[in-house]
């Protein structure tokens, strides 16, 4: 009999972390590796935010705080929602956790029972289905292909809803596709949801600020105020302010849900790091230059990567609206054999052969629930990106 709980057999380790670890191991062995697998900005946290963290230590903010966040940070989060999203929340409707990941985890653990269904459009962020499974629920995966711009259509949403549906998870702009829902797309979805009063929406807005070409970010509670009392809007400072290691995420939603999530957190991690909370407050209330500057850099890199990949035989790369990922199709390479002798049967074989033969680490599409694709994170320097694209092109040219 296994010592480990059965619930653990339902889930798998994060494939993106596995690929990043493998790339780091190969690099440690002396191989020339370009890792395009990690989902974090390559910039340092802006100076004024670091200074706020240091000041928090000097001021003695080194003790336990209220379980789901200090009052001043909750106030700053309310102001952020009002300023940037036109959403009016009271601090009692705000929860702060150890990264956006904990907010999602708390929400699903607090609400999903065995047999409950959660609609997850694919390609999806790798953790959604596994969190649903851990909670005992059933992820209902709805494939949203290139033809739909990787976006869930209202028809597909309507079809996926059953009497067991608890949540729809939306992530715009998306990890891994970079696809964003404009106001019209979002409204078409919220119209469907208005007809299904028992379905809640978990909106993962973590890439809100990384949008390009003037794309206007919207979030469901803003587009359809009548849904607000069944929407949990999740966000965080990791991607917007290059603060992945500080681990601060937050959610806004109806008070009973927020209280339930805090109850769960009180029996797991308690408060998120006190120092990080003060730094996150500085991020939300201080100058926003970094947000604008990083957006411009990411847009330039996106253009570089999309143009380069579309010159690779067998690859088609749509232009994403946001985040720092592209999700190209390798349909044109399936069935071919690489110069190193690997038959490219699927996107996993492609990613493995690409790493072995060229040293470029990407994540295969099956990890995100939609094949045959792969994900590139372009949160890395321009020179590395140019070199990676050149290697990918040579790899594709060598396939036959
Ligand atoms: C779509 C999405 N949601 C949530 C997260 C979690 O972010 P964090 O826990 O660092 O705030 C990530 C991180 O990769 C993500 O890509």
Question: How does this model look, in words?
Answer:
With 400 residues, this protein is α/β, with parallel strands linked by helices. Helices cover 40% and strands 12% of the residues. The chain contains 13 helices and twelve strands. The strands form three sheets. A seven-stranded mixed sheet has the order 2-8-7-6-5-3-4, sandwiched between helices. The protein has a three-stranded antiparallel sheet with strand order 9-12-11. The chain has a two-stranded parallel sheet with strand order 1-10. The protein is globular. The relative contact order is 0.16. The structure holds pyridoxal-5'-phosphate (PLP). It holds the Pfam family Aminotran_1_2. InterPro entries: Aminotransferase_I/II_large, AspAT/PAT-like, NHTrfase_class1_PyrdxlP-BS, PyrdxlP-dep_Trfase, PyrdxlP-dep_Trfase_major, PyrdxlP-dep_Trfase_small. This is Aminotransferase. Residues 32-392 form the Aminotransferase class I/classII large domain. One of its GO terms (molecular function) is transaminase activity.
What share of the residues does DSSP label as strand, in percent? Answer: 5-15%
The termini sit apart by 48 Å
What bound compounds does this protein have? pyridoxal-5'-phosphate
Q: What integer is the average pLDDT? A: 96
User: What's the β-strand tally?
Assistant: 12
Summarize the amount of helix as a percent range.
25-40%
Number of H/I helices: 13
For the largest beta-sheet, the strand count, sense and barrel status come to: 7 strands, mixed
Q: How large is the radius of gyration?
A: 21 Å
The H-and-E topology, N to C, reads as HEHHEHEHEHEHEHEEHHHEHEEEH
The geometry reads as globular
Q: Could you say which structural class the secondary elements and strand pairing correspond to?
A: alpha/beta
Question: Order of strands across the biggest sheet?
Answer: 2-8-7-6-5-3-4
The parts where pLDDT drops under 50 for at least 5 residues are: none
């Amino acid at each position: 009999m296994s010592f480990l709980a059965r619930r653990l057999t339902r889930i798998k380790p994060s494939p993106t972390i596995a690929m990043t670890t493998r790339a780091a191991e190969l690099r440690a062995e002396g191989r020339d590796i370009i890792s395009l697998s990690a989902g974090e900005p390559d910039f340092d946290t802006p100076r004024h935010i670091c200074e706020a963290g240091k000041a928090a230590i000097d001021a003695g903010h080194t003790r336990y705080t209220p379980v789901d966040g200090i009052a001043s940070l909750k106030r700053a989060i309310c102001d952020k929602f009002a300023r940037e999203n036109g959403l009016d929340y009271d601090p009692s409707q705000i929860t702060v956790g150890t990264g956006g990941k904990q907010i999602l985890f708390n929400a699903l653990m607090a609400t999903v029972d065995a047999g409950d269904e959660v609609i997850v459009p694919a390609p999806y962020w790798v953790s959604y289905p596994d969190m649903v499974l851990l909670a005992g629920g059933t992820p209902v995966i709805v494939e949203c292909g290139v033809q739909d711009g990787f976006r869930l259509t209202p028809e597909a949403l309507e079809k996926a809803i059953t009497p067991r549906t608890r949540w729809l998870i939306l992530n715009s702009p998306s990890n891994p596709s970079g696809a964003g829902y404009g106001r019209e797309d979002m409204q078409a979805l919220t119209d469907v949801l208005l007809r299904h009063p028992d379905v809640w929406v978990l909106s993962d807005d973590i890439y809100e600020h990384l949008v390009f070409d003037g794309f206007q970010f919207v979030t469901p509670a803003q587009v359809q105020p009548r849904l607000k009392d069944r929407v949990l809007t999740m966000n965080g400072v990791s991607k917007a302010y290059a603060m992945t290691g500080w681990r601060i995420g937050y959610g806004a939603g109806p008070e009973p849900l927020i209280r339930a999530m805090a109850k769960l957190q009180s029996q797991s991690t308690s408060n998120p790091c006190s120092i990080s909370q003060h730094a996150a407050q500085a991020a939300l209330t201080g100058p926003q230059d970094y947000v604008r500057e990083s957006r411009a850099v990411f847009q330039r890199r996106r253009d570089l990567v999309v143009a380069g990949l579309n010159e690779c035989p067998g690859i088609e790369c749509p232009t994403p609206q946001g985040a720092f990922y592209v999700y190209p199709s390798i349909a044109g390479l399936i069935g071919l054999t690489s110069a190193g002798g690997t038959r490219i049967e699927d996107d996993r074989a492609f990613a493995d052969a690409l790493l072995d033969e060229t040293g470029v680490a990407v994540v295969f599409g099956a990890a995100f629930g939609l094949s045959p694709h792969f994900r590139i994170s372009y949160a890395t320097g321009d020179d590395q990106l140019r070199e990676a694209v050149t290697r990918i092109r040579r790899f594709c040219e060598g396939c036959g």
